Amino acid sequence: MTTGLIATSYLEIGQIGSLDIRVPVVTIGTGEPRLAVLCGVHGDETASLAISRIFVREMLGRSLKGSVSIITAANPFAQSTGTRVGLMDFYDLNRSGLGKPKGTFTERLAYQLCEYLSQVSFVVDLHEFKMNTPIMAIYLPHEDRAIDRRSLKGIRAFSPAIVWALNFSVPNEIQYSGTLLAALAKKGVPGFAVETSQLVVLSPQEIQKAAEGLIEVAKCVGVIDAMPANASPPAFHRTPIYSDSAGIWIPTAPLMSEVQKGDKIGELVALDLLKQTNVVAPLDGRLIQLRSNALVHTGTSLFSIGVEEASITDRIRSA
Ligand SMILES: [Zn+2]
Predict the structure, then answer these.
(1) C-alpha radius of gyration, the chain, whole number
(2) 177 alpha carbon to ligand 1 midpoint, in Å?
(3) Do both 107 and 47 map to the same domain?
């Protein structure tokens, strides 16, 4: 058992101009089992750091049986430019799979991260949406049943408000088969991703809740010797709805409300500031993501409708 032992190490990735690019890893405790928490796979997403700060503070006071490593900047150059992707190659780190040791900069970054993370027991990858969302875990179905079950147990411990169950049979979601987590599952590492609202609108209570969820995952993985939480969050398939034109988006329906096909979700005011159209739900379900007032363009995501998948909710409950 260790208490309070913390160290920072680095994964050396390469150079951009005269800058050395390296990935910082903050580790608490030593040895197995190992939980890894990924922050900033997309460089413009920073809620992960606020959540991890509280998580680290809580972990430092506890006796640990293994270790927790927090990758505080998984995509350091994108973090430094405040952009989703690295501007040197524009590859999305979370669509680069296992990466390539001799590929583009981002492919090399993905490769090094996957090499490092393939040694750990469990991975939680923290992201945020541009749309507001309750704390959400993303479940990737795995062919390997043992990995699938361990991932579901981790989600249950984390106790998110809702689960987005990825559906690889839907064209829109095939892209997620290239995520870091999907690649790591193929290497035998279970895990899940988390989506929150952006840091600027995330409440202290939500930050605390997400950090406490990570503590429960640490229990589930065995880093903390205690029984983890045992929640049964509802699982949804998700349909994002995009704007058909540019304008000022003004949402009118509340986040997480039940909606029926044809219900008004918000208004889009054209840039002549006169023409106004209602944007309605194209299907029945729950409003699981909702963009705040914003200037949007054709193709900006406005909201997502979730349709609960009772069979997956049951699988989470019984994992
Ligand atoms: Zn992201």
Answers:
(1) 20
(2) 14
(3) yes
Average pLDDT, the chain: 95
Number of H helices, E strands in the chain: 7, 18
Distance 235 CA to ligand 1 centre (A): 20
Report the share of the chain in percent with pLDDT over 70.
Answer: 99
The pTM (predicted TM-score) of the whole model is: 0.96
* Structural domain of 299: 239-305
- State whether 185 and 255 are in the same domain: no
Query: Which one, of 247, 234, 242, 127, lies nearest residue 191 by Cα?
Result: 127
DSSP, res 131: S
Q: What is the distance in A from the centroid of ligand 1 to the CA of 39?
A: 9
Instruction: Tell me if 145 is assigned to some domain.
Output: yes
Task: Report how far ligand 1's centroid is from the alpha carbon of 40 (Å).
Answer: 7
Final residue in a domain of this structure, among 221, 253, 282: 221
Question: How far does residue 195's CA lie from ligand 1's centre (Å)?
Answer: 8
Alpha helix ranges (H) inside the chain: 47-60, 76-81, 105-117, 145-158, 180-186, 204-221, 310-318
Check whether 175 has a pLDDT greater than 80: no
Domain count, the chain: 2
Measure 130 CA to ligand 1 centroid, in angstroms.
9
- Ligand 1 centre and the CA of 196: distance in Å? 10
Residue 42 and residue 14 in one domain: yes
**Six token digits for residue 10:** 């680095």
Q: For residue 106, what is the domain's CATH number?
A: 3.40.630.10
CA–centroid distance for 21 within its chain: 23
Is residue 86 within 8 A of residue 75, CB to CB? The reply is yes
Please give the distance, rounded to the nearest whole angstrom, from the Cα atom of residue 272 to the centre of ligand 1: 33
Report the separation in Å between the CA atom of 273 and the middle of ligand 1, taken as the mean of its atom positions.
33
